[in-house]
Amino acid sequence: MSLLLSKDKHHFLYHQHKNYSVIPACRESSARKKDPGQAGMTNQTHLSSGDRLINKQGFTLIEVLVSVAILAVVLAAIYSTFFLAQRAVEGMDESVVKLQESRRALDILRCELESSFFKEADANTLLQIKDRDSYGKSSSELTFTTFSILRPGLSKVSYYIEEHDGRLNLLKKIEDPRKQEKAEGTEIIEILDAFSIEAKYHDQWVKTWDTAVNKNTPEEIRISLAFRLKDRTVTLSDIAIPRIDKPL
Q1: 48 falls in which pLDDT band (50, 70, 90)?
Q2: Residue 196 to residue 80: CA distance in whole angstroms
């Protein structure tokens, strides 16, 4: 009986030990069977590492030279476009400034002529238009007495052309008609093509006028300024109508 028990106990322990030793082996084998992607991941890791090794090789000398050449062509096109645009803007700015100062001078001269004053009994009052020519270009000379905003009382205003290095510049000076003091001329516009003053006399435009001869001021006075803007000649004109001592 005891012998049988000892045998059964030994047999039970043997089977129990056998079961414990077999189960881990089965689990390990099943774990290996259930994880087939691990090897693939390892291979993928090795492949991606290989790709990184290939990518780390960089660019060849030919690729670098071609890239530099393309970049140089693009930069040259950009710089040329920029300089052309800048030159066009500068030329436009000069044209606008020239046009503005010409219009301003024309408006001031028209207002002064409309305020011109002449009285036959007063020897200090006058209006004279002289026809002049400089290098084949019209260069009128205008002198008259008027009421100017630049100084109080009656003023003697003169517009005339002076030549500097082959260029015609319009100058203006303001004097006191009752004094013999000479004033310096102030430059109004540079580089003119023509400055023309004409008086209307019996429905015709004449280039000379003298109140000492005509005994009165013209009905209308036409002012013309011509100058160059780039490749063309621009002419601005306006008409002044003297209003002092004139019927409305």
Answers
A1: very low
A2: 42
Q: Which residues, 6 or more positions from 105, have their beta carbon under 8 angstroms from its beta carbon?
A: 170, 188, 189, 225
226/161 Cα distance (integer angstroms): 13
**For the whole prediction, is pTM greater than 0.70?**
no
Return the structure tokens found at 121: 């009994």
Residue 141: predicted pLDDT:
96
User: How much of the chain is helix, strand and coil, in % rounded to 5?
Assistant: 45, 30, 25
Q: Which tokens in the block code for residue 107?
A: 């408006």
Tell me the residue type at 57. Answer: Q
pLDDT attached to residue 181:
80
Domain ranges of the chain: 97-240
- Give the pLDDT band (50/70/90) at residue 93: low
CA distance 217 to 243: 10
Cα–Cα distance measured from residue 157 to residue 128, given in angstroms and rounded to the nearest whole number: 11
The CA distance from 134 to 226, in Å, is 14
Is the CB of residue 235 less than 8 Å from the CB of residue 223?
no
Mean pLDDT value across residues 130-143: 91
